[in-house]
Amino acid sequence: MAEGSLAGFATLEELMEEYMPPEKLQHARRVLYGLNVGELVKGIDLDPVLCGRALELDFDLRTAAFRAAPEQMRPPRVVRIGLIQNKIVLPTDAPFTEQAKAIRERVGQMLETAGQAGVKVVCLQEAWHMPFAFCTREKHWCEFAESAENGESVSFCQTAAKRWGMVVICPILERDAAHNDTVWNTAVVIGHNGNIIGKHRKNHIPRVGDFNESTYYMEGNTGHPVFETAFGRIAINICYGRHHPMNWQAFGMNGAELVFNPAATVGDLSEPLWPVEARNAAIANSYFVAAINRVGTEVFPREFTSGDGKPAHKDFGHFYGSSYVAAPDGSRSPSLARHKDGLMVADIDLNLCRQVAGWSGAAKDGQRTSGASR
After folding, report:
1. Residue 126 annotated among the catalytic residues of the structure
2. Which of 76, 130, 182, 265 would bridge 270 by S-S if both were Cys, CB 3.0 to 4.6 A apart?
């Protein structure tokens, strides 16, 4: 049984497929994952070469397509997006420069596949360029922090953005040299020409169990920005912010059509919440949500405790991946694997946002004019 799998299966969907007859499985999928314009969410036919590349490089590659109802006065606004989840590559006691280089090389393989697949907006996981060492409370991990303007990981993503003409969301540990080297948990938004559009800093910091992140950074100061890109209005709700409904609401009120939730969360803490939180946010705010979670178990050189009464230990627990996309009509994609690197490619028709919110926008009395069933 693969470490980190779900009873030997990569995803809950694969487990259900194994034990449920097809005619019953479709009913379960309808209840669990909803219908998109009256149908189950279907996949995309990608070039077999790309599928073979994923097998060769051993990462999970899955697809989904979300439609909107045809309109007479407006053409479809289909955008192909990508979600990338990844393990660290080298052990955490390896030299930091080697760890960072190995992660970039691995993520680069999936970024290249995304570009070849025609992805126009791709998001990486929270602090993708380093181990999620914030459980340890050891300050030397701050060496991984870098400039949001010209850091090595940001420059790496700029190169990919220019090469493939795609927007790249690059979540990093940021060192703000202009403000006394303050450290932030930041998502840098890179335009399809390689230009930096802007950044958003994580505005809710967990203080639960081993999530000792306040040792490294505090709540961000960027509010709830929405970034105008060539492919739609995008926001980033970093990790723990997904637990706060008004956080999601603020991005929606500021005009977001697509909100990414790059995260790092472990099974014992949040897995029952993970399949529904992004979906709930999409339904409540009439936008698409793309939820990306780190994957793997990261073991650190020294034991640590978190003041929660548990014995000293060296790992955070298993980051369970399971990245997925949710639509404003309540439908959602299957998940990426729980135990391996992965790339989700999804076509989303942004027209669905306005269709679900109501053709006339906000009602005069302030009540939502929802196109969804009551």
Report:
1. yes
2. 265
